[in-house]
């Protein structure tokens, strides 16, 4: 049997894992919920860098790796690329297309955290949808601002920060309610692509609010690249079927 390792942590990764039978592996970094309804094995935690991943691929006799990590999980994608090259294991990747600005959008690109801070200096009620990164900067919030930070798990805030723990998908009505409750006047987002978290962009467009968009990292090439989980799973199912003949 040729074993597949899916590097997940996204809805795309989970959708692929749900299509895998027993004997294959779905890997999570351990930051989100661990699915309990998969036929394949679930592995939680890091690999110990590139060398550790190479050892894992060889020890577990992995014949194909599917990188379905988040578009901003650049280090894991780079490690996967290097490890697969070293272990001579093919690498496939799901590369979700980035969102594109539409008529009425006011997007301001930012290359990094420093760029984000520079672009939101004139605003009072920013909404951060970057995950955990803003939590490391709670002590740096200007007296003129109150941050709303949405991430997956509950964390304590402070006098100038409200932490909202929520997991997508998010709809328009829910996003409108959040914007109203928090008094949002600017949105800070990763350009993650996909539909699960896109509603915030539509609400910002409705209200004429600026969106500061963190630039996507450059990811390494893969042997095959797919735009979505469905096409990746179709190709993977075909690959598994033909490899068993």
Question: Top keywords for this entry?
Answer:
2 domains; Rossmann fold; elongated; 12 strands; alpha/beta; 31% helix
Explain how this protein is built.
This protein is α/β, with parallel strands linked by helices. The chain folds into 2 domains: 120 residues, NAD(P)-binding Rossmann-like Domain (Rossmann fold), CATH 3.40.50; 109 residues, 3-Layer(aba) Sandwich (Rossmann fold), CATH 3.40.50. The strands form 2 sheets. The chain has a 6-stranded parallel sheet, sandwiched between helices. Helix 3 links the parallel strand 4 and strand 5. Helix 2 packs across helix 3 and helix 5 crosses helix 6. The model has no long low-confidence stretch (mean pLDDT 94).
Structural class computed from helices and strand pairing: alpha/beta
Number of domains: 2
CATH class of the largest domain: Alpha Beta
Secondary-structure element string: EHEEHEHEEHEEEHEHEEH
Strand composition percent: 15-25%
State the end-to-end CA separation.
11 Å
Question: Total strand count, please?
Answer: 12
Mean pLDDT: 94
Identify low-pLDDT runs. none
Provide a short characterization of the protein structure.
With 245 residues, the protein is α/β, with parallel strands linked by helices.
Topology of this protein?
Elements: E1 3-7, H1 11-18, E2 25-28, E3 41-44, H2 49-59, E4 62-67, H3 74-87, E5 91-94, E6 106-110, H4 113-119, E7 126-129, E8 147-151, E9 161-165, H5 172-182, E10 186-190, H6 199-207, E11 210-214, E12 224-226, H7 229-243
Parallel strand pairs: 1-2, 1-4, 2-3, 4-5, 5-12, 6-11, 7-8, 7-10, 8-9, 10-11
Helix pairs in contact: 1-7, 2-3, 5-6
């Amino acid at each position: 049997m040729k074993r597949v390792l899916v590097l997940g942590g996204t809805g795309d990764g989970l959708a692929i894992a749900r299509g895998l039978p027993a004997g294959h592996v779905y890997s999570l970094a351990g930051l989100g919920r661990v699915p309990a309804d998969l036929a394949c094995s679930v592995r939680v935690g890091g690999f110990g860098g590139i060398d550790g991943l190479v050892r894992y691929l060889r020890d577990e006799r992995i014949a194909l790796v599917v990188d379905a990590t988040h578009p901003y999980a650049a280090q894991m994608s780079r490690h996967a690329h290097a490890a697969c090259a070293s272990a001579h294991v093919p690498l496939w990747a799901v590369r979700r297309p980035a969102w594109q600005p539409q008529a009425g959008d006011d997007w301001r690109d930012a290359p990094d955290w420093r760029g984000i801070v520079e672009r939101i200096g004139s605003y009072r009620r920013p909404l951060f949808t970057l995950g955990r990164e803003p939590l490391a900067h709670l002590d740096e919030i200007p007296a003129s601002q109150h941050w709303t930070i949405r991430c997956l798990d509950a964390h304590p805030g402070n006098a100038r920060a409200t932490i909202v723990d929520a997991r997508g998908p998010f709809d328009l009505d829910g996003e409108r309610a959040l914007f109203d409750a928090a008094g949002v006047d600017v949105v800070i987002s990763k350009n993650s692509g996909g539909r699960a978290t896109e509603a915030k962009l539509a609400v910002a467009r409705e209200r004429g609010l600026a969106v500061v968009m963190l630039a996507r990292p450059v990811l390494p090439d893969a042997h095959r690249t797919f735009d979505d989980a469905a096409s990746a799973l179709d190709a993977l199912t075909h690959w598994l079927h033909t490899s068993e003949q």
